[in-house]
Write a structure and sequence with these properties.
single chain; 2 domains; Rossmann fold
């Protein structure tokens, strides 16, 4: 039986990179539909929604490949419409493609949030020890360090924009390696298998990639 997977991105459609990675994890023949919380906005309208603080900062990539910092609250305000469109598309499963923590939103019943997948895996794999955390922007560090903190776990945060070149990625990975983490989590849906491979080449620790970890959970839902 053919299944349909819906994806909400906090940016704009199309995002062929996200669709292709999720499609690779889904059962054969799965139809994938992506909708963006910022769909329908011009570049100028997106630029008029800047973050108000580090805690309000999200990273996303717009259609055309432009990296932006966007207000988390603005994304929350626009997400119910994207979820409603995917419901109307008849999706069998929906994933909200952002690793941030979000409050309850209209239409989010049964939606898979990657932050819950990553945090659950990290808690199960690292009951105590040192967690290396990659985040897109330095100003997110304090907020995300607090999100991942728990008794018995030390969190080491490094910032790496997902579109960084290989030299910058290696430099950040070397800083992580110096901290000797027991586990690494890549806390953004725009990090790719290539990012993970570059990190693992420099750091001898298990590494969790949000998009593939979430994709494997979705396969369980769709099989």
């Amino acid at each position: 039986m053919s299944r349909t997977l819906g994806i909400v991105t906090i940016g704009q459609a199309p995002r062929d990179d996200i669709v292709e990675l999720f499609a690779a994890q889904a059962p054969a023949g799965t139809k994938v539909i992506l909708r963006g919380a910022l769909d329908g906005l011009s570049d100028a309208e997106v630029d008029a929604l800047p973050p108000q603080s580090g805690a309000d900062t999200l990273y996303t990539r717009l259609r055309g490949g432009r990296d932006v910092k966007i207000s988390k609250q603005a994304v929350i305000d626009r997400s119910p419409a994207a979820l409603a469109r995917l419901r109307a598309d008849g999706c069998d499963a929906i994933v909200y493609a952002c690793t941030g923590e979000f409050p309850p939103m209209e239409g989010d019943a049964g939606v898979l949030f990657p932050s819950r997948v990553l945090s659950g895996l990290a808690e199960g794999l690292l009951p105590r020890g040192r967690l290396g955390l990659l985040v897109p922007f330095a100003e997110q560090g304090e907020k995300l360090k607090a999100k991942w903190a728990r008794v018995g776990v030390e969190v080491i945060v490094e910032a790496l924009v997902p579109s960084a070149d290989p030299l910058e990625t290696k430099a950040v990975a070397d800083r992580l390696a110096a901290a000797k983490p027991d586990l690494i989590a890549l806390d953004c849906m725009s990090y790719t298998p290539a990012t993970k491979a570059a990190v693992k080449e420099r750091v001898p620790a298990p590494t969790l990639l949000a998009i593939t970890a979430t994709g494997r959970v979705l396969r369980e839902l769709l099989d």
